[in-house]
Design brief:
Layout (H helix, E strand, L loop, with lengths): L1 H17 L10 H18 L6 H8 L3 H5 L5 H22 L8 H14 L2 H11 L8 H26 L9 H21 L6 H16 L3
Helix pairs in contact: 1-5, 1-8, 2-3, 2-5, 2-7, 5-6, 5-7, 5-8, 6-10, 8-9, 9-10
């Protein structure tokens, strides 16, 4: 167990250190992404604990050693799936453009939420892994801490740019509002999983963002 934990910490630390540089490593990326897509669906349909690496490898069309070359254990694979989910949201934020017109940030947050809601497998696995963040010694804690701080900074900066342009109110704590938006999204994802997908995730997030829109609007 100790040997595995040390291996997992090393892997997660490399994830944190790489950040957005991971995209520059082209060799093996296509196979890696294929593994992640197949594993995500397998974990969702059959259950994480019921799915073996051998089953994932067969579904991808590679050998088990070929899979473990990329992901030494199933836990590493699960963490990488969630990292990919975080990368998608971050990529959308990085690619966002447009004038600070008072709706740009809200539209971006809704687009990210709609993208998340379109992949039930990733929602379930994200909630599964996020429970690990409660343990400060867990490698997942470091990954999530880094990503959350960046997300808060990006959202707050986008709101603040709109405020400086005179498009929204300038008397609000946009860092706190950014944290609230993230908390609502993540909390509703947990409720979606608990309810077995029985709530309108996109609709509820949209309703919250509509209230935020009214809050930040200049009278």
């Amino acid at each position: 167990m100790q040997a595995f934990r040390e291996s997992f910490v090393t892997y997660a630390s490399s994830v944190v250190a790489r950040g957005t540089k991971r995209g520059s490593y082209a060799v093996g990326r296509e196979r890696r992404e294929r593994i992640l897509a197949v594993a995500s669906q397998r974990f969702f349909e059959a259950g994480y604990s019921q799915t073996s690496l051998a089953e994932v490898a067969r579904a991808v069309g590679i050998t088990t050693p070929g899979l473990t070359h990329h992901f030494p254990t199933k836990q590493h694979l699960l963490l990488a799936i969630v990292e990919h989910r975080l990368d998608v949201a971050q990529g959308m934020a990085d690619a966002a453009s447009g004038e600070p017109d008072g709706i740009r940030t809200i539209q971006l947050l809704q687009s990210i939420s709609d993208t998340i809601a379109s992949d039930p497998a990733l929602i379930t696995l994200f909630v599964l892994v996020s429970a690990e963040t409660a343990d400060p010694s867990s490698p997942v804690h470091a990954l999530f801490a880094q990503r959350y701080e960046r997300a808060v900074e990006d959202i707050a900066s986008s709101f603040e740019a709109e405020a400086r342009a005179g498009a929204i109110r300038s008397d609000l704590d946009y860092r706190a509002l950014a944290r609230e938006c993230i908390a609502v999204s993540d909390g509703l994802q947990l409720q979606w999983v608990v309810a077995g997908g029985g709530i309108d995730l996109s609709g509820l997030i949209r309703a919250h963002l509509d209230r935020v829109s009214r809050l930040i609007a200049i009278d």
